[in-house]
Amino acid sequence: MENHIIVAEDHPLFRAALQTALQQALNTPEVTEADTIAALQGALESDANPDLVLLDLNMPGAHGFSGLLYVVGQHPKVPVVVISAQDDEAVIRKAINYGASGFIPKSSSMDVIKSAIQGIINGEKWIPDNVDMSKEAGQEKSEIEEKIATLTPQQFRVLGMISEGMLNKQIAWELNISEATIKAHVTAIFRKLGVRSRTQAVIALQQLELEGSDNSQNNQQPPISNS
Amino acid sequence: MENHIIVAEDHPLFRAALQTALQQALNTPEVTEADTIAALQGALESDANPDLVLLDLNMPGAHGFSGLLYVVGQHPKVPVVVISAQDDEAVIRKAINYGASGFIPKSSSMDVIKSAIQGIINGEKWIPDNVDMSKEAGQEKSEIEEKIATLTPQQFRVLGMISEGMLNKQIAWELNISEATIKAHVTAIFRKLGVRSRTQAVIALQQLELEGSDNSQNNQQPPISNS
DNA sequence: ACCATTGCCACACCATTGTATGGGCCGGAC
DNA sequence: GTCCGGCCCATACAATGGTGTGGCAATGGT
């Protein structure tokens, strides 16, 4: 069988390793590589129904889970496997809750990666088995996450550039479209995100990244008793 | 002896607990409380030479280590003890490298806190003893961190408000000064940070928070099999 | 006492941002 | 087919953002 796989992975070495794993795990797969979120978007526009997307978190152009949220938001039918160097239980659970079909830690061995890919291609879920997915399975997406998933591809690109500090003028030049159009996109993005300035937009995006790092002082009162 | 201590801590319960610890650890200390970075700044302007500052990370008005950086930048002689719910080794080492005189995890018992305070008042350093500070002791501050330390108190306040998405006009109203003055501050801040827009300024600030969470692929186990 | 430095402030001026309105071109869904 | 929605573009306008210039007061070194 011929499978089309999109590999969205920043690090060239690891991308090559994934290539090898795919060649061995599948029969003559057709692999498209993407090293940025923009490239991933391009690949999904060429073929909106790949059999699988391997997605690294923390790619250039994305922040935290925003890349995953975008893909599952725009292409709900496409199975996405998250590949990440971070393998906290919280990160894994979050990825699955946001619609990923699986999670493969970068520390996995080649054999593990191969079997994971084969399983997922056949419609299974796949996660490291030392993770307990049962508890708290029913988390919801936060506000901002749902909103990001409603952005159109172009809007998502523009938002990414805004959150890199670029001016409307620069974005227009980079995308080869007029500044007037950029402004139109920007206004649309603000409406969807519920903010009123580009500064607030990048602040909203930061929230995304911090949410995973859990923690802290939710309700932990001081452990003090005293004399 | 009369000691003047500033307690900068957001959570009221914990602030009260620290009060108790201070009363017991020291002889009739004079304690000033601050629940925001702005309040801490005010306290430091009233008395620029307190004997000790207890500083919680993640206070309203600060982001990550920016509060610590500001205090040590503007008041290098004042000993600062960081108090935090996060007690990762990386966070602790970072705090010390940025000029903190000690680190007290929020999970510490009352006795530990008392002895820590007593030690630091006497000029010692104090860190949890399960942390190995020897390795990599000579880290340097990153670009952005050094820059933040050069901000004036007012500039620091303004930067904090910018990174909360406020307009110049709103900031002016909040600080009871004219918008023109805010703009002057903003321009000065940008120069010091090396950025050209408020958006880039908040992006620069995010870098600060992410730097600690590094660690990436230190996992070499291939511990997986599958679903 | 003098000067240099630094923070604070205000006015004038230009650049950027954000919105509204209106239009044209597609491709997919009904 | 028609309708809808994304994408593109333009004009005009109001608001906000950012800089240059200069003035004032306080500080600290000489």
From TrEMBL, chains A, B:
InterPro entries: CheY-like_superfamily, EvgA-like, NreC/VraR/RcsB-like_REC, Sig_transdc_resp-reg_C-effctor, Sig_transdc_resp-reg_receiver, Tscrpt_reg_LuxR_C. Coiled coil: none annotated. One of its GO terms (molecular function) is DNA binding. SUPFAM superfamilies: C-terminal effector domain of the bipartite response regulators (SSF46894), CheY-like (SSF52172). Residues 4-121 form the Response regulatory domain. Pfam families: GerE, Response_reg. GO terms for biological process: phosphorelay signal transduction system; regulation of DNA-templated transcription. The modification 4-aspartylphosphate is found at D56. Gene3D superfamilies: 3.40.50.2300. Keywords: DNA-binding, Phosphoprotein. Residues 144-209 form the HTH luxR-type domain. This is Transcriptional regulatory protein DegU. It comes from Parendozoicomonas haliclonae. The lineage of its organism: Bacteria, Pseudomonadati, Pseudomonadota, Gammaproteobacteria, Oceanospirillales.
